[in-house]
Amino acid sequence: MKAIHPDMRILQEAQKGAYGGTSIEEVRKAWSVYTSSLAAPRPPSLSVHDRLIAVPGHPVPVRVYRHAQPTGACAIYMHGGGFMKGDLDSSDPIAWGFCDQTGATVVSVDYRLTPEHPFPAAFDDCYGVLTWLSANAAELGADPARIALVGDSAGGQLAAAMCLAARDKGGPRIAAQVAIYMALGSSMDSGSYVENATGYGLTTQYCRDSLALLLPTPEHQGNPYARPWLAKSFADLPPAFVHSAELDPVRDDGRFYAAKLALAGVDVTYREARGMLHGFMRARFTGSAARAEYDAICEFLRQRV
To answer: Which run of H or E residues covers position 296?
Structure first.
């Protein structure tokens, strides 16, 4: 095994039960325990409220974070959790941090989860929120020309898919995209899926199981909105910040996405957190190096949105 950064020790300890459980209820409970163990209180200066966004066929719960001195920028945040777990509470420390450090209004999306709701449920929920926000940004004090998409892990896959869909459909406009330790629905046979298959928290088998729950039938296997890896073109997409962890099965999905964007002429920044694991943002409250990785994301958002 490669050397793991000391800032990841608290993450490793917390992750011992994060991927446990045999039933979906147990899996989600374990995730909630894991994420809450690494959380920190929100700054009192932030205004936070939950609401429903009316999208076609399904009202989507979101949590809206507003800064005391908002900049007019807005970020839609899609959490990770393999499409099967995660909610507004488990993603709260990640979401409020973006608002606190950038001044942007952050809309965290509580999209529907597998196995109850396979593709395209999560995609439809998130894209529906994007469409609503583009038309109603003023209601949140935001500028519709300054909307960024931010997602980690499964959320990074959703962000990439939404950028493809917005391009293909002629809108809504997306000012920037951020994909953090993203999955892409790849074939999972690249180097990182082999080198980092076990021993670093997230496993390759877990990634395979998650994709199987997202796409339980052959119907959508070739759909790039389900598997952005399969997109025929990566041209004309928003400026991107792609952030991977070195010791992570999905690392090469991030490398692949950044390379494809660059080759297509998209303005892209790629950053790799050396010696770090999937989920490193959650270690920012205790580790200065993990905090620097999180700060780099916020700096990109401040500059680009």
So the answer is: helix 288-304
Catalytic residue among 91, 108, 153, 186: 153
Give the angle subtended at the CA of 200 by the CAs of 194 and 203, to the nearest 5°: 55
Which of 5, 67, 79, 278 does the annotation list as catalytic? Answer: 278
Number of domains composing the chain: 1
In whole angstroms, what is the distance from residue 51 CA to residue 96 CA? 16
Residues of the chain with pLDDT below 50 are: none
Residue 236: active-site member: no
Is residue 278 annotated as part of the catalytic site, yes or no? yes
User: Can you give the pTM of this predicted structure?
Assistant: 0.97
Q: Which two tokens stand for residue 150?
A: 């931010």
Distance (Å, whole) CA 211 – CA 197? 15
Domain limits for position 258:
6-21+45-304
pLDDT tens for 271-304 read: 999 999 999 999 999 999 999 999 999 999 999 9
Active site residue 153: yes
CATH number of the CATH domain containing 169: 3.40.50.1820
Catalytic option among 92, 110, 124, 248: 248
